[in-house]
Amino acid sequence: MxxxxxxxxxxxVYSHCGILVREDMKFVMERRLxxxxxxxxxxxxxxxxxxxxxxxxRRVELEAAVExxxxxxTYFFREPNQLKAFTDEILPVLQQRNASSxxxxxxxxxxxxxxxxxxxxxxxxxxxxxxxxxxxxxxTDISRRVLATARRAEYGPSALRATPPEHxxxxxxxxxxxxxxxRDDVRAWVSxxxxxxxxxEACQLVAQMDVVFCRNVMIYFDLPARRRVLQVFHxxxxxxxxxxxxxxxxLLNLGADFELVHLRGDLAYRxxxxxxxxxx
Amino acid sequence: MTxxxxxxxxxxxxxxLALDPAAPGTLDxxxxxxHDESWRVRRASAESLRRLTxxxxxxxxxxxxLGERGETGARxxxxxxxxxxxxxxxxxxxxxxRHSDPDQRKFAADILGQLGRRSAExxxxxxxxxxxxxxxxxxxxxxxxVGSDTAARALEGILKEQDxxxxxxxxxxxxxxxxxxxxxxxxxxLADAQLRRSAYRVMGLIPQVAATELISRGLSSELRxxxxxxxxALGTQASVADATLRTxxxxxxxxxxxxxxxxxxxxxxxxxxxxxxxxxGALVAAGALRExxxxxxxxxxxxxxxxxxxxxxxxxxxxSEAGRELLGRMAELSLPARAAxxxxxxxxxxxxxxxxxxxxxxxxxxxxxxxxxxxxGRTQSPxxxxxxxxxxxxxxxxxxxxxxxxxxxxxxxEAVLKALEEVVERRPSPAAVAALAHAGGTxxxxxxxxxxxxxxxxxxxxxxxxxxDVDPAVGLELARGALADEAAPVRxxxxxxxxxxxxxxxxxxxKRALQDEDIAVRLAAVExxxxxxAVDRAPxxxxxxxxxxxxxxxxxxxxxxRLGTVKPAVLREAAxxxxxxxxxxxxxxxxxxxxxxxxxxxxxxxxxWDVRATAARVLGDSGGRESLEAVRAALAAEQDALARRxxxxxxxxxxxx
Lengths: 280, 657
Known about the structure:
heterodimer, A: alpha/beta, 3-stranded antiparallel β-sheet, 11 helices, B: 657 residues, mainly alpha, 41 helices, 71% helix, globular
């Protein structure tokens, strides 16, 4: 891949979805996209760029390229400290706040193959705070293909590498071989949809959420794209709603629309509630 | 203004955001906001300052806030705001570097470092001898971020100073600038426990065998901290080494690690380090040790993208035992590790891999399956035929399976052929037909002729492609009929086939395809015309150059270029196209003519960096010395790194004419 081919492909991907491949990632881009060239029978990356620009299948291929460039590394019960803080400190607040509506909405943005969305549903069930509530965990990702895996809900040992054995027996059904499937009662709380987080119009379709999980997704975006995505989250969260980022991420240099919440076991961000009426 | 003093934080925050940047008093209100007890209000104020129109005044007010001792929150917010203002902050901060209060000077240096503007370099270099040690450290750190070679040389000059903190900061800054000092200057620093890690880090940047020797010596130190620092240097050196030095690094590392009794354990632990160069060094060490038990740790190192190249290299060196270990535990690996392992496996594959690769096909993701398919082809084992043939019906990997069967037929042609003939007879698919063409040759022609009449259009198109692959004469015969087929994929295949084997007389055949209702057929026809030299169709191609579809217009330009009939007016038309790819096609087509060279000079001012770079290359190839001035002027104004490189090359080439 020449420097120019790299830049053209990088710019094209960026303009589509705000994902920025850094200059020092040329080798990674080459490695990850080469299988796509092979699948399409193309000889070089210039041809691949032309394909992405002009072919009738370009939309589908662009999705495949983005998917190849963003490693969907995810597994159940990832980042346990944060999940514990969510369970022990945030869920009680939500239970109290939404007691009258008995409705709870959680968005797993950039859900990849579904492990995070199902983990959240499992935690909700385990807490037993929301029985007979109207609960929905909504997983979205830019890639349609990973969503197909998420809906299938079948996973192998790699996805379960951080799952305590008692959770495996409680929330999964063995499928034979080394595979398991998420139990139906957990799946019933989870739905999935395809969404480009930079497509503000499409994001309007997302309901008002109590919590947004967006972990290890914004690492792929540059600063302007991060700001746009945060704006989307801000709009889709109810006042007082929580934003949970990955441990390597924060809102430094990204504005102050969210307030930092110091939980006992972790940090989270919250959309501020408007001041009491009398103080306006 | 009163709202920014409201008792409730959220109200003050919203009041700050609601301020009109053009209204009088806004700057004062925002400065008040910088002093707010809430960090959200302070940050909102800092960000809002950027929206004001009088930025120079803003910068000076912010610099004044930096001097308010006891107002830590406001000072930090002012610093953040100054960084956000960009270039306009540089001059007042340079002035602040000479303030009598060292605290202020330090602030100035820190912010200039964060701003990263080269324009601050000379001022920072001049003040490297600041009497206050903390200020000096901040200046050194800032130069590590903004400096060029000038700063690096200045920093190198103070490396001999006695103060430990200064030397440490200089080593880190030089590492950041990728500017290693001479080896003899670094060697004594290795003896100091507090400087050792940084000294090793900078030594890693020296691509010399002598540095490799010192690093290797560190690897066999009795002190674990020294070994780890040396490992980090090893990782850095491997990343900057050429092939010759790389061989030396591997052999010296191997020799050094032989003297370390717990080398394997040490390397395995190094993969858990937070420091990326140490993990990179662990990869080099694992490769040198050729220890298969490290395969999983090596593969998992691919979770850091920047290590991917070294991971694949290392895994390939670990040998086929490691490959089998990886294959057996593939389901437990993280996704990046699986992808890296799969890539490396291609290098190690042998016939014994077939069962594990077949098992992988049962559960893995498509990308990984595609690699497994490729690997199966490379096993050269008859056992691989059945799993590959079974994949021909799966669209996501069928193409890979066709190619793998082609490779496999090099070692066991009869088995491949027999299986493909059976499948094409029983349940033909486009992929199976393509595979049969690869493996079967002309013996399969009757089958292809028969399939060219199949009800499924995709099979008809595949049969035509296959026939063309094995016997162009038969392919051409089938292609004529295909152009009148009712299905677009078949007409496309027909046009493509004629392009491959047709001659100048094929223009008549392709006339209808050129006006086809389906864009894919038209694209194939345009390309075919260029390939077979049908100059009689040039007027139709010229008409397409202004077509709004960039694919059609660009391909028409390229076809005309192949026909050798690009007129100057057509070139100019294409150069005005909204799609940059068409403009680049025009530039490339024009490279053979004086008109094209003149066009390239004009397009040096095109808004697209890639167009400017292409124009520069065309001028470098085809321009005369008279173009030199225009290219030099473009180079002086160019901001884009790639376009600059192309312009610089062009200047060099034109200067020699």
